[in-house]
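Lecture 7, part B: from sequences to assemblies.

Below are the input chains for today's worked example.
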Amino acid sequence: MVAARNKNAESERLKEVMEVITRKLHEAVKEIEPTQQEWFEAIMFLTKIGHMCDDWRQEFILLSDVLGVSMLVDAVNSRRPSGASENTVLGPFHVGDAPEYAMGHNICLDQKGEDMVVRGRVTDVDGNALEGVKIDVWQANDEGFYDVQQKGIQPDFNLRGVFRTGPDGRYWFRAVRPKHYSIPDDGPVGDLLNRLGRHPFRPAHLHYIVSKDGYDVLTTHIFDPEDKYLHSDSVFGVKEGLIAEFNCIDDPASSEQVGFDGPYWDVEFDFVLAPKEV
Amino acid sequence: MVAARNKNAESERLKEVMEVITRKLHEAVKEIEPTQQEWFEAIMFLTKIGHMCDDWRQEFILLSDVLGVSMLVDAVNSRRPSGASENTVLGPFHVGDAPEYAMGHNICLDQKGEDMVVRGRVTDVDGNALEGVKIDVWQANDEGFYDVQQKGIQPDFNLRGVFRTGPDGRYWFRAVRPKHYSIPDDGPVGDLLNRLGRHPFRPAHLHYIVSKDGYDVLTTHIFDPEDKYLHSDSVFGVKEGLIAEFNCIDDPASSEQVGFDGPYWDVEFDFVLAPKEV
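Predicted structure of the full complex, as structure tokens:
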């Protein structure tokens, strides 16, 4: 009945989207059978979320994240051939103008945390090394904060950088082992998680955007397998194929070779790019 | 997967509600397959709605209304035995402290509009007259505005009042024929209606809350059958059983009997109250 009103919509797509949304909303109401009071609580919950949003905080995205909707939207937009690396959520902490470094650079600018080497190889789905791949990485520090969350505490562009693969498709850089952190939980979405008995934490991870002309842009994370929140990521970003290995290297010769003074974490992770769909 | 996280929710009901909402949201995403851009437009639409809400404007209720959700919530909460009068939406313009009048009082306090007599009988489902029924009525004026929308233009409590039935179950009062009006359409919900090719109007109606101890509270409207928006109410409030008859009485003796100077509209509408469920 509602959808029939939309026959003069400005586009077929808008009509289609509103038909599905209206139908699913009505199905939800019929199944939940909310009381008037419950309906009003839902109205006020959405209103509070709206009032929490400003230029710096997007509480509706947070709601989409904790309900698994953001990951699902990513999934329907990132169908890849078998063997290609999987996407996960972009998250709110990417910046567009991180500096480009030579391979091996240490992106930790304040020497805080446990040293780490991250390395791997980028190939196409046939295993051929890809040259000139742009690898844009960023991560939280060992206290679970990004530089942009701690302006004046962390140096600008701490723990972020851009690298480009050579003919062998290999990349490597130095950083510190990242830590798990809480999504912003002082608003209505945090209240909801609390009422649902859910914690607000994301397991430790590094962010990547791996891109090269002619290939699907890969927006993903790699995860620390030992993190206690690995199987309960508050935004459902973890995929089995994105869990890395973190090996402790306690060998002075190896440390000297990579430019560290003592033991460090060695993380190896390869990426496989899918050809761009045309 | 998302719902499994909620096993420690503070209540079974919250768990159940969030399970349905999450499942329906995911079904909608799978069917719509939104692009990242479309998903972001949805986020920004909800954000704008939130920012439109304040103490005087509830844009999320408006969204619920124009998607037919408010009427559906009313329907699942108002299942009545056959023959009982049907509910419709309360709307935002009810006030709790309207004056109580003797039967026959004219609730039009500014003499503007076409004179109207409204009358009828309140019974139980067996047809027995109900005494002491509280009839709380309110309506827009002949320009489509409620008193509370035109403070200082219309007198306070214009076109609203409370009446109580006697032993015969009958009620009658005088007023003016109401006019259709637009829901507030200067916000994101109005923009949506516009993009969907839908108008924002509600057909002319009178509001009633009919109540007596021991019976289901009846919150409803009666509609003017000649209104051009009768079959396209922007909030889906019209039900066949709530369409009244408006008869023009052009007879000096009748006019004199009800206290008018000339022709007037005669509207007869009976209500049947359902016993309260215990």
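Note for the exam: Chain A has six helices and eleven strands. Keep this in mind when comparing with the next example.
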